[in-house]
Amino acid sequence: MQYELRTQVIDPPRKTFDHLVRRYGDRPASRYEEGTIDIQAKENFHYRPLWDPAHDIYDEAYSAFRLTDPYSFTDPRQYYYAPYVTSRAAMADAVAATLDYLDSRDLLSRLPDAWSSVMGELLVPLRHYESGAQMVSCDIARFGFGTTITQCAAYAAFDRIGNAQALSRVGIALGGGTAELLADAKTRWVEDASLQGLRRYVEELFLEKDWGRALVRLDVADRLVYGLFFAHLDDAAIDQGAGSYSLVAQHLSSWFADQRKWVEALYKAWVTDPGTGAANTQLLAVTTTEALAAALVALGPVAARADELVGAAAAASLDATATTIRDAVAALTA
Domains along the chain? Predict the structure, then answer.
């Protein structure tokens, strides 16, 4: 008996969902589009929140930043569940491999004393900064409007917990396999004078009711924090023979470059919106300027302490990043 294998093409009766056909035309949609576009709840709400009866449960008015069409913004990374999880699994594996290597070669114990102090006093306590950023990101995911936005914020919230866990693992390794440095980091976050401005900045973000302003304020702090710790101090660590610091910093630097892709795309959507672009541009400039002033006050003592420990011109680096942000605001409003 012989079998003949043939290819039979079956045309699907429909290419995608009706709401995507109305938006994009009758064409096959990507998995990202099917899982993201036009699925924000907009009607049939049962009640308004008892804690905020002025708004619906899902309401555009939770932020002064508005888009005429919330789906004019899309994630440039095109993340939905599967590619996001695949990407972050690879990232987590890379972090674990680096930390395992540091452990196996006992490299953290070989750090110069000054750099060991930088990691113990300033870097490991950033796990609490990341934890705070996770809470802010969750708030953005809850109160944002438009699934393309809230989806990015939700993924960012998961990322922040991953960052905090990575810094915790660094603390455990630096502490010789014990949790002593983690307890010390919590005490420093609550009590050290150099960290109190940053802690206050994060805790005040919890009180921000406008999710768009919270996003901008967090992003401004991120640009200063990541520019200082995972770009400038990374270079300084290499120059001063603290390569172990650089091995850790590379992963957080890579994550931040990925994070800023969607944030910058959202800013662009805000300022180029045909109906709300002018108002968004003005609000973005004002919010960024206010946030930068507060973030510089918060991070000034952190940079000063880093300079006390390793003399790496951290304060000058902070000022340079601030100048870059100011120039971007000036270009925005020109």
Answer: 80-333 (1.10.620.20)
